[in-house]
Amino acid sequence: MDSQKSISRVWSSLSSGLLCSAPLFVLLGLGFFGPLALVMLYSVQPRGSFSPFGTPTLENYIDIIEQAFYLSFGWSLLLAIISTALLLIICYPLALALKRYSGGMADTLTLLVVAPLFVAENIRLQGWVLFFDKAGFLDGSLNYLFGFGPGSLVNNVPSIVFGMVYIYLPFMLFPVLLGLSNVPTDVREAALDLGASKWRIFRDIEIPLAMPGILIGSLLCFVISLGAFSEAKFLGKGVIVTIAQDIESAFSYGQNWPRGSALAVLLIILAGTAVFFAMRKIDLNKVLGTR
Amino acid sequence: MPAEPIMELLGVDKYFGNLAAVNQITLAFEEGEFFTLVGPSGSGKTTLLRMLAGMDKPTRGDILLRGERVNDRPANWRPTCMVFQSLALFPHMTVGGNVEYPLKCRGTPPSERKERAVRCLELSHLPISYYDRPVTTCSGGERQRVALARALAFDPEILFFDEPLSAIDYRLRKTLEKEIKDIQRETKKTFVYITHSLEEAMVMSDRIGVMRDGGLAQIGSPHEIYSNPVNRFVCEFMGEVNSIAVTRGNGGELWCESMGAAITPPSSVETSFRQGTLMIRPENMRLVNPDEGRSTNVFSGELFNEYVLGSRIQYQIRCKNDTFLVERLREAGLPKSGDQVSFGWNPEDSMLFPE
User: What residues are paired with B340 via a beta bridge?
Assistant: First the structure.
């Protein structure tokens, strides 16, 4: 009798949970897992095939290895690592400074950081191109005022890194800010009181306690920079090709869906590996303060 | 005259904007004493302690450590250590890691560190098996002990406590109060403790300083402060008290308007005031048998409330427009609510504070 009751209670709570999460399941199924499965399926189709139901083959992967695609993989990986590292170096002190402010000032500063997100990424990047290009805003103004200018500052790798750091800043800043909010002031003061130097407090207290936020921010930035291509396209103007550009052109100009799919699968594996290793170190409940 | 004080404050002020959180405090701590600062919230206790520990700097005045000015010496360069109200344990470390942290900062070799940590855990009554436990798995009382052990491991010359027991339940608090006092006796270190709990102050301290609005109202032994408070504030802060507004007549007699009666004052009383407050502790009040025939300061009133306080009982008695608290041992045959009773006090047990 009692056990029956508790079983029905478990079932009802389970079913209400299932019911509530159903919309998400449907959305994820149709919008995420469906296309993912389709991409995987296409990646093992013969070259240039438009049907997902041909005889499975690994020829696309072999093509990728034989042709120099590792270059674009390498560039994407390198750019992702460099921009994530730079973002970390920029955002950590920024987050520390933001944490000092409270109330209205903090809101204003947060709004300033968030505001650019309301403008489309491509438009913002084009803005930077107009700013940095030869006879652009910077070069033109300097030429007009002083008779000389830096010429074109775009069309190179550093400008691509600049664009990525600029675009992804909020994705690093806010997780790091969240991480730093897990470092109580009095814990820091206690360490100081126990004789710890500033450097020691940073290394022994601040970094370990803020680590979940730092990891999440780095992971987020790393994964999205792996798939970046607008920065290379607009600011780099084709000086290098990222893997996302390769995927795009395989699908569009190349009209070779299986190759694009195979490239996408490899990129997903790369990003997935990073996520897997980082998530093993993160306790999400702890970060979000639900425990 | 005792030896040179271990720490001294000379005219210390601390302003936050225009607000004086600590106002002209001059005070000396003697080596090896247990000094408690008590006062209501916002009286400046924590601000004062933070300056002593080196986490804040005084706006004016000097802090001397064994005669040396240390105003600008940061917390990590002072031989003092503080137990925080929040305890401020390092949540990502084990109990052992927490306790050993000050030794690590000092560069003590690992084997020696562990040895000392174990000794400090013992001193604060924590089982050695806790050494490897994550500190987050400890209960409130255990964390308290970890915080204490960590401070002891630092081996400070002065230990500061910022109301560490305020979040702990009554029984455990009583135990920990005694333990802290025992540790102080054992280690012979100077302890400076702040609390808003009068009881805590009384149990542990050699001397108490009562703070009010950023200043020190009185310094003295617990007994001195309880029995001879310098003003109404200290008297009221140190425990429940009956207060009666009185006027002094030309002949020196006291007249209480609200009761419409003359009152015999304590014998040692200054003569240069017209109005004042007479204060008597509830335990100094007594119920009087009507046929006892004592006449000084005996009044009658209606007993309208009784509170049982364990071994003691407290009555509320209404007499004209005044209410009195009378406390006595609980025993058989005591009056009940609604009874008419006579009550009074020995004039020497009352304290008179001129306005």
Answer: B302
Instruction: List, for chain A, all residue ranges whose pLDDT scores fall below the cut of 70.
Output: 1-3, 283-291
| ipTM for this model | 0.84
The identity of residue B1, as a single letter, is M
Residue of B nearest to A192 (CA): B76
Domain count, chain A: 1
Q: In this predicted model, what pLDDT tens digit does every residue of B150-166 receive, in sequence order?
A: 999 999 999 999 998 88
Residue A172 is part of a domain; what is its CATH number? Answer: 1.10.3720.10
What range does the domain containing A130 cover?
Answer: 63-288
Q: Which of B202, B153, B147, B200 is nearest to B173 (CA)?
A: B200
**Which residue in B83, B101, B160 has the most chain A C-beta atoms within 10 A of its own C-beta, making it the best mutation to test that interface?**
B101
Asked if residue A23 belongs to a domain, the reply is: no
Residue B46, min C-alpha distance to chain A (Å): 13
**In this complex, is the C-beta atom of B45 within 8 Å of any C-beta atom belonging to chain A?**
no
Tell me the shortest Cα–Cα distance from A208 to chain B, in angstroms. 7
Instruction: Return mean pLDDT, chain B.
Output: 89
Q: By CB neighbour count within 10 A (0-12 exposed, 13-18 middle, 19+ buried), where does A228 fall?
A: buried
**Chain A contact for B150, CB < 8 A?**
yes
Does any domain span residue A137?
yes
Contact B76, B132 (CB under 8 A): no
Residues of chain B with pLDDT under 70: 1-3, 269-271, 292-295
| Cα–Cα distance list, A59 to A50, A257, A267, B24, B178 (Å) | 15, 13, 17, 85, 79
- Do B81 and A191 lie within an 8 Å CB cutoff? no
Query: Which residues have a Cβ under 8 Å from the Cβ of A167 and sit 6 or more positions away?
Result: A121, A124, A125, A228, A230, A231
The secondary structure of B258-282 as a DSSP string is TTTEEEPPPSS--SS-SEEEEEE-G
Which tokens hold the place of B225?
A: 């402060």
B152 interaction partners in chain A (CB closer than 8 Å) = none
